[in-house]
Amino acid sequence: MANLDTIEKTKEMSTTAKAGSAPSRAPRVAVAGVSGYAGGELARLLLRHPGMDGSAPIFLGRARETAADTATTIESIHPQLAMIGTKATHLVEPFHWDRLSEAGTEILFLALPHEQSREWAPEAIERGIRVVDLSGAWRLQDESNRAVYKLHDANPALAAKLQDEAVYGCPELHRDEIRTARLVANPGCYSTSVILALRPLVRAGIVDLDCGIICDAKSGVSGAGKAPTSKTHFMYAADNLSAYSVFGHRHTGELLEQLCLTADQIQFTPHLLPIPRGILSTIYLRLKHAMKPAEIEHLFREFYQGSPLVRLHATPQLPQIQHVVRTNFCDLGFALAEDGKRLVVVSCLDNLLKGAAGQAVQNMNVMCGWKEEEGLL
Amino acid sequence: MANLDTIEKTKEMSTTAKAGSAPSRAPRVAVAGVSGYAGGELARLLLRHPGMDGSAPIFLGRARETAADTATTIESIHPQLAMIGTKATHLVEPFHWDRLSEAGTEILFLALPHEQSREWAPEAIERGIRVVDLSGAWRLQDESNRAVYKLHDANPALAAKLQDEAVYGCPELHRDEIRTARLVANPGCYSTSVILALRPLVRAGIVDLDCGIICDAKSGVSGAGKAPTSKTHFMYAADNLSAYSVFGHRHTGELLEQLCLTADQIQFTPHLLPIPRGILSTIYLRLKHAMKPAEIEHLFREFYQGSPLVRLHATPQLPQIQHVVRTNFCDLGFALAEDGKRLVVVSCLDNLLKGAAGQAVQNMNVMCGWKEEEGLL
Amino acid sequence: MANLDTIEKTKEMSTTAKAGSAPSRAPRVAVAGVSGYAGGELARLLLRHPGMDGSAPIFLGRARETAADTATTIESIHPQLAMIGTKATHLVEPFHWDRLSEAGTEILFLALPHEQSREWAPEAIERGIRVVDLSGAWRLQDESNRAVYKLHDANPALAAKLQDEAVYGCPELHRDEIRTARLVANPGCYSTSVILALRPLVRAGIVDLDCGIICDAKSGVSGAGKAPTSKTHFMYAADNLSAYSVFGHRHTGELLEQLCLTADQIQFTPHLLPIPRGILSTIYLRLKHAMKPAEIEHLFREFYQGSPLVRLHATPQLPQIQHVVRTNFCDLGFALAEDGKRLVVVSCLDNLLKGAAGQAVQNMNVMCGWKEEEGLL
Amino acid sequence: MANLDTIEKTKEMSTTAKAGSAPSRAPRVAVAGVSGYAGGELARLLLRHPGMDGSAPIFLGRARETAADTATTIESIHPQLAMIGTKATHLVEPFHWDRLSEAGTEILFLALPHEQSREWAPEAIERGIRVVDLSGAWRLQDESNRAVYKLHDANPALAAKLQDEAVYGCPELHRDEIRTARLVANPGCYSTSVILALRPLVRAGIVDLDCGIICDAKSGVSGAGKAPTSKTHFMYAADNLSAYSVFGHRHTGELLEQLCLTADQIQFTPHLLPIPRGILSTIYLRLKHAMKPAEIEHLFREFYQGSPLVRLHATPQLPQIQHVVRTNFCDLGFALAEDGKRLVVVSCLDNLLKGAAGQAVQNMNVMCGWKEEEGLL
């Protein structure tokens, strides 16, 4: 288990790293949990990442020291990745801390269940390894929001300390903190789509919060994970649409924290779409004062200037899921009623890319001082 | 062209008919426009309708007196309907008024573009034929709402008179008027899903209209019609979701009129789902005073008592598109926030059945004094 | 357990029944295993069956005498069936032999795993109940073909006797035997599509069997059953196509037995289609002598004269899955090469209807002396 | 119009080019017809191609000198490509020969209807521009096979000459000829999947051709092109499967020529799958003599040694469409019956990539003396 002292020390190291310019060499990177959908996409992105040349990422399974201890390959888990990219190895090894140490791993992606991430992230950081965690384990600062994950910390003081320094890994909002972070909590897929749509508006103070913001979100089935369940059965999902977790989805806490809203100021309803991937969020809000479309557009453009992975559609064009699937972009568009007050914002992204693995690599790029979009266009 | 006198006379006749009990014989029925999706479903329902035994419906094309004048068959247009039902004939004939007169047609379904319906409905009524019109031509009483259809009337006075007596064909709301109506304007598919979800609540006066009602609706592709366009191309619709006609969909007028709301009290956004059929509307509203789920449920149950084609899900269960596809039901469910004020209503139906052909047959059943659900369960 | 004597007796009874004309009353029917896809369709068909008026079918679960012993409803398992049909009850009760006896059950549908069917069918027949079994347990006469099911019989002699009298429930081939059968083995979905396509040709002796018949079949996902597995996961099946069980699918035995072919004369390859339901089989064969399309068509028409649930497409039109989904038909069509020798037959059906529940009801109709297509058009 | 003399001269130039090693700079490339599906994929591949750095491809529309003559952008046609890649420009210009000349275009991709390709390819070659043509215009050497395209040549002698030197652009078969070719006829999507599956076997002389080879192929809807038709309507293609062009598909000629077979030795049946992209071909054949799986596998491995874009599955694993979609690979696998004689080969590829744009870029790579897989992994 990590202790507070070693944690302090690694922190200094990563702060130093920050000062430097683009590194002359690729970081030594590992991924724990490549078997899931996000893990597979992460492997694909890293195998093709131009910055990773000469430094093969290490792929690890979910289980710590398996009985068998035998390695497998990426393509035996994700056949579509066979011979993908130009990296030498496609090996997937059982998880060992020693393996990471020997390899001098600098950045570790955790694509694991949140309980496991909550346990492993501290240990990684103690070992001087920076972490990008794709689970919900570290995203929420407010303990009451975090309660939904039912997390249990072996070392609560340490966990609290790490939680405190964990950075919400949305580069468009927290680019500077991510640069030097030891623990980056990669955002939820739904949350990313809603936060990127709302942050410029809420921050500008133009939203009438009395009526509440309505977020009607729709996601493809990969968001439900790889485990076969009655809800991920083809016969349930195909030719269907269903709302779920009304008033109770666990991504809601991220919206509250990142947008600085209270629970009755924003309402989030997810739906399960009969498609493999992609999220479209339709967001309804009222403005305090009548505005013109050009003013709204200007506000978005200004906010996302310098954010290469957000694309803004000129009104009246709206993004669609098809535009973003298999890309690392979040697309935004909007429609303003004639009264200049009722605004509909539409936000789209690929839940496995900008909503998970793509954003994780974007965070890695920022952590390495590289161009944010490197390997993601 | 019809004139006001003959119109008056037919009206008396149908009022007389009303007094009677269930007719001892099947009505003589015809369908104009069987080639579209709604027309095909109408044919299927009529061919299987137990009340129609011994009285084959007449199927007619869209074109008046075609050059060729040759008959075709239902199955050459809709191969899946070959040998369906137990009726003798599956013939589709070119449209002739004489053919209808000879056959003594009593009820004519118009599954036609709205311009054509606006022209043909008066002529049918003049000839003493009652009309169930599936287009948008006669649904809207308010001329400004109707403007979206750009209708042109050859005889404006007559059209105005018929418009005045046209009944909005939602049996759950207007059962009594439909019974004797000469012109029934079958509701829009989206409108049906929203109106059935909201009418009990709005009528009870419990909705806080200041914040506005948000209707986020999603429909399968059959709602876009049979014409091949870039939007109905498989490559556009599949694996996709897109919002369209934001602040401008032509079903909005029906919501305003049937729910007695103003344009800033309700907002409607349709989306195109990558499925053949089905609509799910997620409706967001705030209540004036905090209520309990049981009170909401009671309100719905009371309103739809005696309405066999509305199914209410007990909270917290919500309807899904899969539950209603290929049925003639509208399914309703809801979720109430802990504050007892924020309410989400989910409404589902099959856009071609309860949203079109099924509701048309339901109207026919009412017009004939039969059980409303006859042939529809 | 049933013994041979009582079995003999029931047999006599059902032979007597055969002589009679159409029964004046509905049979007392029960379904064991309504929770699966075929079971749900069976429930739907029986609830709507006009011949069943006044005689509610009994729906039973899969488990014998459950601990809880509490009844549930059809709609809690299949929400889309809520309020479907005009029958009084939608109750699903735990399985009890006593319940069946008290109700005087005459026909029992078994929609169960084959091991369970192999155990329960003898017991039902001993109790004087005729059985329509939807599993693969009783379809194969040849023990070596049956080996694929790894069946274990508690009473091998009895099982052998029943197996001997079991009738392969394809009414188009065995109508007369089905009429009086005590045990009807409802055919496999794939098998039905291939057998109906080939039987008229093979029986006519026109097929050159030296080159072998190739059956390339494609099925929707419902054919894989309701259990969530990695293969029925939406992410596996959607936007995909995969061949499976090449040279080893267990429906092959039915083809051999019903078409009187040897294993090297016919080859069967199934594929998993990314659709909920429907089978299309493309069948390739060579004719001994050159023929004309009209001769082939005549041969089919003659064979299926009097078979209301087989629809033949006039060449060059070919059936499609969309034409048969949600119908009880098997559609056939063919293309003949210019040489008059190479023939492609295309066969389509809905795997849950003509391939399972629909054919089961068709068998019931035949067993009751009713019109074969009653309740199925 | 091109004449034979200038054609001769350009030929020499490109033969010279052949001798050289990998060029030190990117070729000047243009694409005519970027608006279709293959054109869009071609744009995507070129915008991301590492070898193209510093040399923006020129994108041109289909129409020669449009009236408007105004340029548009890739993203206005293919919104998903907005900001894709790292190239400076996404402009799409009207087609002008002068534009190509000024730019010093060396390789021109034609993603056009075959009539237009038949007209433009000679002109390009006359101007010293090498052509990769994605249509069917130049693939077939045998005039009777080519008849299906109903081509009309303004200058038949020239066309015949060019046809004669045109190379069938399947690098796995004709790598050497492609290297120096002036006119590369990019193969059909279906043809690629079948030819790559069969060539190693047929060439080895192990196939019993008397019984004929059966190719049962299934393709996603993008293969049908971007024009909205009744067959590409979502309602036609979704939840459906249909065979078409039985005994008459125009890709058949490519199979005959590239596999040196006669029309009665191979039979090809395409089907329309309800998915956006991907082809799976199931191919049935008999071997002259019994073989072992390892022998078949060895034969494939040997043939495709040095072919980086063909992936072979070790038996009994078979490729699936999902494995190849959005990749530039053709995946092969097979199953051999116990008799060692009946062989089923399964071949998968993405019809827009290895079946069109990906193979076109592969050809460009070969023509440039680059690694065949450059930009394609």
Automatic annotation (TrEMBL), chains A, B, C, D:
Active-site residues, as the UniProt record annotates them: 189
PROSITE patterns: ARGC (PS01224)
Protein's UniProt keywords contain Metal-binding: no
Entry EC number(s): 1.2.1.38
UniProt-listed CDD domains: AGPR_1_C, AGPR_1_N
TM segment ranges: none
Keywords assigned by UniProt, alphabetized: Amino-acid biosynthesis, Arginine biosynthesis, Cytoplasm, NADP, Oxidoreductase
Domain of life (superkingdom): Bacteria
Region span, Disordered: 1-25
The Semialdehyde dehydrogenase NAD-binding domain, residue ranges: 28-181
GO CC term, one of those recorded: cytoplasm
Subcellular localization: Cytoplasm
Pathway assigned to this chain's UniProt record: Amino-acid biosynthesis; L-arginine biosynthesis; N(2)-acetyl-L-ornithine from L-glutamate: step 3/4
GO biological process: L-arginine biosynthetic process
Gene3D superfamilies: Dihydrodipicolinate Reductase, domain 2, NAD(P)-binding Rossmann-like Domain
Function, in words: Catalyzes the NADPH-dependent reduction of N-acetyl-5-glutamyl phosphate to yield N-acetyl-L-glutamate 5-semialdehyde.
HAMAP family named among the record's database cross-references: ArgC_type1
Protein family membership: Belongs to the NAGSA dehydrogenase family. Type 1 subfamily.
Protein name: N-acetyl-gamma-glutamyl-phosphate reductase
Source species taxonomy: Bacteria, Pseudomonadati, Acidobacteriota, Terriglobia, Terriglobales
Gene that this polypeptide is encoded by: argC
